[in-house]
């Protein structure tokens, strides 16, 4: 017997979570089918909507750039209302953990490389360090932690013309770890305020940084200031230093991305979404133009999941929601059409940051985000797509990845839920 729900969402990233939350708002019974850990843990934890469009950028207002996007872009499919719907679902899910919901304007956030990035939503721990704010800044890195070179980052910020002076220093973390220690090990040491020579991790770290302060009005650390008790860690460091403390988003593995994943899955639990994790969707059964059953491989045992509506949110090429070899690009679950040049040499440009065709690979949706075939006909009337598996956006160049996931997820989830509960 198939496991039956109203809406089945396939995927585990931000698009899938948003689709499931949006579908649940309609009163539908929703299940999230997640195979593996999402790409959120590789992401910065920032939520970009649109930073560059039509040759312009960085954009102060992401909504002002929507009309400059090409036809077929996911934002042109869902419209401004869809983008706003995605942000609303996100804001309600994350609550006070994120900032930026009070305005349509992008904030300018400094990254671990010293770049300045336009973003629409950012963690509360990042807020005191916005690059658009004045306040001389001391960046602190740790010896042996190569993910964040504070002096280099400070030099890059100065070159970017930020309205404050930035200086970077490298200090020893109060407790020594193995050279391959994960960022979570540093965070846990601060969480537990472990005993070290001269006091505790927090007190010794504050004393060390205090000796480096030279009139700066805020201090930035790589995003590792605690996990379970991060707010308490930041408050204590700020009190001891006498200036606000903030986190600088870092590369993978990203503690801010891991925290966002936890927040979203907590929101799914609260919304009553059923979660089945750890096993891939490998096949399906269809009848009369509708997906009837999705087959999941549970330790080599095919297990059927049935739903009135299905949302495909498995990601793009990076998330393995699309497969590619030397000759073709495919969507592996339902075999949806993914247009691409026949000649692989036409998939990319010689310049590293060129206009690469592969960046826009994905399924082609109709105006209700249902994937279409090469003749423009629906693959299945009850299948919708969301996130990176939808083609038409160069999210890296546009700085739009999270926004596309939120917008398409919110619209696909709502339409699926409304259809299932009619």
TrEMBL record:
Keywords, ordered alphabetically: Flavoprotein, FMN, Oxidoreductase
Gene Ontology MF annotations: glycerol-3-phosphate dehydrogenase (quinone) activity
Annotated ranges, domain FAD-dependent oxidoreductase 2 FAD-binding: 6-404
Stored InterPro entries: FAD-dep_OxRdtase_2_FAD-bd, FAD-oxidoreductase_2, FAD/NAD-bd_sf, G3P_DH_GlpB_su
EC class name: oxidoreductase
Pfam families: FAD_binding_2
Its EC number(s): 1.1.5.3
GO cellular-component term (any): glycerol-3-phosphate dehydrogenase (FAD) complex
Recorded superkingdom: Archaea
Protein name per its UniProtKB record: Anaerobic glycerol-3-phosphate dehydrogenase subunit B
The organism of origin for this protein: Haloferax sulfurifontis ATCC BAA-897
